[in-house]
Amino acid sequence: MALLPIIVAPDPRLKTKAKRVEHVDDETRQLMDDMLSTMYAAPGIGLAAPQVGIAKRILVVDCAKDGEPPNPLRIVNPEILGSSDEVVIYNEGCLSLPEHYADVERPAKIKLRYLDHQNEIRVLEAEGLLSTCIQHEMDHLDGTLFVDHITALKRNIILRKLAKAKRAKVTA
Ligand code: GNR
Ligand code: NI
C-alpha cells in the first residue's frame, strides 16, 4: 500500500481530460488499491486518478456511513446510461480544493456502466450521496471541479484563495 500525494488546485493536471483504460490489469488494480488507501487516509469518500496525477478514467468511492462496513468501489471507464430528472443539492467538498465547500445541484439518481477491478462490465444504479459522489468523481475525469458548477464569483473567490496559499507555500 502506498499513499499518493493529492494535487491541489489550481493545477493544469486537474483540468485535463483523462484517457480510457484499455484493459484492467495488475498495474491498474495496484493503483486503485493505493487510491483507496489515499482516500481513506485523507479522509475522503471518493478519489479520481487525475487527483493523483494519473490521466486515466479510474475512480474509487466508499460512501458507507459511520458504523457500516466499508464498501469500496473500484470503477474504470464509467459511462452514464441514464440519470433522473429529479435533482438533489449537496454541500460538496473536494480533496483538491481543501477547506472549501459549496452547494452543487446534480441528478438525484444515475445508472452507470463501468469495468470493475476484474475487467468485468458492471451496471450500477446509485442514489443519495453515492450518486453525487460518483458524478463528482466522473467530473474529475473530464477536468471539471465542483467549482465549475457554481457562480463565477464564488469559483474565483475559492481559486484565488488556493492560488494565494500555494504562493505562500513556495515563498515560505
Ligand atoms: O471527500 C469528498 N467528499 C465529498 C462530499 C460531497 C460531495 C463529493 C465529495 S467527493 C470528496 C473527495 C474528492 O475530492 N473526490 O474527488
Ligand atoms: Ni474531488
Give structural notes.
The protein is an alpha+beta fold. It has one domain: Alpha-Beta Complex (Peptide Deformylase). The chain is 29% helix and 24% strand. The strands form 2 sheets. Strands 1-2-3-6-7 form a 5-stranded antiparallel β-sheet. A two-stranded antiparallel sheet has the order 4-5. The longest helix is centred in the C-terminal third of the chain and has 20 residues. It is globular and about 45 Å long.
SSE layout and pairings?
Layout: H1 26-41, E1 46-48, E2 58-61, E3 73-83, E4 87-92, E5 102-107, E6 110-115, E7 121-126, H2 128-141, H3 152-171
Antiparallel strand pairs: 1-2, 2-3, 3-6, 4-5, 6-7
The structure holds ligand GNR and nickel (II) ion.
Question: What is shown here, in short?
Answer:
It contains three helices and seven strands; from the N terminus they run αβββββββαα. The protein has helices spanning 26-41, 128-141, 152-171; strands at 46-48, 58-61, 73-83, 87-92, 102-107, 110-115, 121-126.
CATH topology: Peptide Deformylase
CA radius of gyration is 16 Å
| Main β-sheet description | 5 strands, antiparallel
How much is the average pLDDT? 97
Number of strands: 7
Report the β-strand fraction as a percent range.
15-25%
Quaternary: single chain
Q: SSE order, as H and E?
A: HEEEEEEEHH
Entry keywords:
single chain, 172 residues, alpha+beta, Peptide Deformylase, five-stranded antiparallel sheet, two-stranded antiparallel sheet, 7 strands, globular, binds ligand GNR, binds nickel (II) ion
